[in-house]
UniProtKB/TrEMBL annotation, chains A, B:
It comes from the Bacteria. This is SCO4226 family nickel-binding protein. It holds the Pfam family SCO4226-like. InterPro entries: SCO4226, SCO4226-like.
């Protein structure tokens, strides 16, 4: 399993309820791809959302996000943590 | 206290030791600005580093990063989490 940080742009005005619903939509199907979305953070002003996940591949992360209705604009493997 | 995600670009080739040293440099002085850097993630291929912090302001986050020798390219308040 690898760790990924993905980024969504254009989410200006996102609310706490909308973020929670989007995250829940990921969680509901993530096991089908052996993905786990650990946490998400949103900046409603700039419209940026960051998602931290563990997954077998970048493609698996994107497949879950796409099926949940919110394709990521960037996905970065983040093999290093501190 | 607010939560911030900051991003550093141009860090291609960063190693685990370099990330740990940079994070440690932040931790060594962060209390002077009531900042706490909770975690950092790096993608050596794209040269992207993400730092999650709690701080009184975006400016306080940047002051610690600057004094530690690595100014952030972007800092986003992330008031929403899921």
């Amino acid at each position: 399993m690898a760790v990924f940080m993905d980024v969504h742009h254009g989410m200006a005005g996102i609310t706490a309820d909308q973020l929670a619903a989007a995250h829940q939509a990921d969680l509901a199907i993530e096991a089908e791809e052996q993905v786990h979305f650990k946490q998400a953070w949103a900046d409603p002003d700039s419209g940026t959302v960051y998602c931290l996940s563990e997954a077998p591949s970048m493609e698996a992360v994107q497949r879950i996000h796409e099926r949940a209705g919110h394709r990521a604009d960037e996905i970065h493997p983040v093999p290093l943590t501190a």
